[in-house]
Specification:
The structure holds 2 protein chains of 2 kinds.
Chain A: H1 2-20, H2 25-32, H3 41-62, H4 82-98, H5 102-107, H6 114-134
Chain B: H1 4-28, H2 34-43, H3 48-66, H4 80-96, H5 101-110, H6 114-137
Helix pairs in contact in B: 2-3, 5-6
Classes of the chains: A mainly alpha, B mainly alpha.
Chain lengths: 151, 141
């Protein structure tokens, strides 16, 4: 049940990405290119998405526990540190060059072209580099799921 | 300029993304951050969940294209090495920052997280500057 639901939620996510135009790098770059023919589309995507999460997350957290898990795996971390800024800046460089963030890059498998075969292997190499370089010998035994916590 | 239809598609797509992220939190108790899901697919012990979520994303986009939605068109003159460099930066960057447009943008802002607000503003501003340099200084389109 849990697995079917995960697939369906992914499906809604992917359909939403494609419908919103986020899977089209020229639309993303059209938004980032404020000096060109500016395309405000992404504001509506982000506005629509955050409009829903702002309300829904509040309600969901009040429920106390999620349906298929004992607790919510959320962090209330508030610290602003160098990895957050440097990592986000590096992401901004890659996003600003290519017009792809991770979700739309993965969605390229639904309509493969040469950009998929260049971008996605490079992105996965980036994750692998970051993962192995960030692990000191003492950390290797810790739960790999810890890396999933963001926000 | 954007037509009203494009505006409606963007908003409706955004609402679906927010709905999926909310369902993910309600059901699994986790943030639907794509960079984290990819990280888990590569390195976590339980890979089935992340694999199904990513398969869902691909199928969801495929359904939209099958229904007649426009599929992305590859660029012709864009240098492959530059695209590869961008992919590397996106992988390392979202890994180091623990989140991307979905984790920090959609979910983090929904949680009113200051960390996510700082992350989102950082990648937006750096993205805008980078696009300017690439397009208007180096003339790559």
């Amino acid at each position: 049940m849990n697995n079917i639901v995960t697939l369906i939620v992914g499906l809604i996510f992917g359909f939403g990405l494609a419908l919103s135009g986020m899977t089209h790098p020229e639309k993303v770059l059209g938004f980032l290119d404020v000096a060109g023919a500016w395309n405000p589309g992404l504001l509506f995507v982000l506005g629509g998405a955050v409009g829903v999460t702002l309300i829904a997350f509040r309600v969901i957290r009040k429920l106390g526990k999620p349906v298929f898990s004992a607790t919510f795996h959320l962090t209330d971390a508030k610290h602003i540190d160098a990895p957050l800024i440097i990592g986000s800046a590096l992401f901004g460089i890659g996003w600003g060059i290519s017009g792809y963030c991770p979700g739309p890059a993965i969605a390229l498998f639904a309509a493969p072209n040469w950009e998929l075969w260049v971008f996605v292997p490079a992105m996965l190499t980036g994750y692998a580099l970051q993962y192995y370089l960030s692990r000191s010998p003492q950390q290797v035994t810790s739960d790999p799921e810890d890396i999933s916590v963001c926000g | 300029m954007m037509s009203v239809t494009q505006f409606a598609y963007s908003l409706a797509g955004g609402i679906l993304i927010g709905t999926a992220a909310s369902l993910f939190l309600w059901l699994n108790g986790r943030i639907a951050g794509i960079s984290s899901v990819i990280g888990n697919l590569l390195f976590a012990r339980d890979r089935l969940g992340p694999a199904l979520f990513i398969l869902g994303i691909i199928l969801g986009a495929a359904i939209f294209y099958l229904l007649g939605g426009a599929a992305p068109v590859p660029r012709t003159g864009f240098p492959a090495w530059l695209l590869g460099l961008a992919g590397l930066a996106v992988g390392v960057g979202t890994g180091v920052a623990h989140g991307c447009t979905s984790g920090h943008g959609v979910c983090g802002l929904g949680q009113l997280s200051l960390r996510s607000l700082v992350a989102t503003l950082t990648f937006l501003v750096v993205g805008i500057l980078t696009t300017y340099v690439v397009r208007h200084i180096f003339g790559v389109l």
